[in-house]
Amino acid sequence: MSRYDLPPLASVRVFEAAARHLSFTRAADELGMTQAAVSYQIRMLEDRVGAPLFIRRPRAVELTAIGDTLAVAASKVLDQLNSAFEAVRQRASGVLSINVIPTFAVQKLSPVLGRFQIAHPDLATRITATRALVDFASDDVDVAIRSGNGQWPGLRCHELFKARFTPMLSPALAERHGPLRQPADLLKLPLVDPHDPWWSAWFSAAGVDASEIMKRPKSSMGDQFLEAQVALGGMGAAILTPEFYRRELETGQLIQPFPLVEEMGQSYWLCYAERRRNVPKIKAFRDWLLAEMAGTAEPVATTA
Fold first, then answer.
1. What sequence ranges are listed for the domain HTH lysR-type (predicted)?
2. pLDDT digit string (tens) for the chain, length 304 residues
3. What residues are paired with 255 via a beta bridge?
């Protein structure tokens, strides 16, 4: 059994407008309805109440005592409902929720997000840095940045840059272990997360038999930015995406000992629900981020 025994909201809206104007014609004009439709909705409401709400005269209508009581209540309730919807609408449109891979959040997004805030001062941002895949159907998320092939059903995805990878290490580690003249020399070093498939793929592309790394103790930092911290601390060589560490490479905090950069057909993507592609705050962030990435990334591709 329903908690509330209420008439249809459409009938209440029509009644409130007719009571406010004391005119079925003006109520019809306000609501974009015909006068016959207004009369029908009010008749339905009167049947539900069990008493007339208006006194119908040849050229005007007047509220009955019951109608007057209901009109006051209806106007108050609709005002409250409108205020509640407006508050929710403002909250929904004024906060952009971003779900993003931690490394991207630390290395790419957080250093430049201030420029988005300056360009859109009325739009607050809420960032969740996690590797967990977001469910746009149930989670309170507007956009996500994830890695993969960009083929996710129901999502519009824009390629930001390729997920390339190459070994990096600190100058101090390179100095301790001697010069690195060829890729095989990396096997003399401690490797961060040696079981990461990127290591095997890179060594294979370099023509190096690196099967022995699979016998090394298994470890996993979980995210690139944590692996990079180990490398920056001089405790091992890490396999990293150059796009994330340009600043560290330019300042000499990390070195890339060999020019070979490999990839496995994946990229980083900006994604959002296809059905929400025209939501203003999503369009604003999409346009800004793609422009922000344009100076450093390859030409943008968009999945169909």
1. 7-64
2. 456 778 888 999 999 999 999 999 999 999 999 999 999 999 999 999 999 999 999 888 999 999 999 999 999 998 888 777 766 665 556 889 999 999 999 999 999 999 999 999 989 999 999 988 888 888 889 999 999 999 999 999 999 999 999 999 999 999 998 889 999 999 999 999 999 999 999 999 999 999 999 999 888 888 999 999 999 999 999 999 999 999 999 999 999 999 999 999 999 999 999 999 989 999 999 999 999 998 643 334 445 4
3. 169
**Domain end (from 44, 65, 92):** 92
User: Is residue 232 in some structural domain?
Assistant: yes
Do residue 116 and residue 88 come from a single domain?
no
- Angle, helices 9-21 vs 35-49, to 10°: value is 110
Residue with tokens 């999503």: 282
* Spatial CB neighbours of 48, under 8 Å, sequence gap ≥ 6: 7, 11
CA distance 63 to 71: 9
234 alpha-carbon distance from chain centroid: 35
**Cβ atoms within 10 Å, residue 93:** 13
Looking at the structure of the chain, the number of domains it has is 3
Contact between 212 and 218 under an 8 Å Cβ cutoff? The reply is: no
Neighbours of 287 (CB within 10 A): 11
* 29 and 37 Cβ atoms separated by less than 8 Å: no
Domain assignment of residue 116, given as a range? 93-163+265-294
Q: Which two tokens stand for residue 5?
A: 């025994």
Angular region, 252: left φ>0, alpha ψ -120 to 50, beta rest? left
User: In which residue are the tokens 């999409």 written?
Assistant: 286
SS3 203: helix
* Residue 173 near residue 292 (C-beta atoms within 8 A): no
Residues with Cβ within 8 Å of residue 174, at least 6 apart in sequence? 180, 255, 257
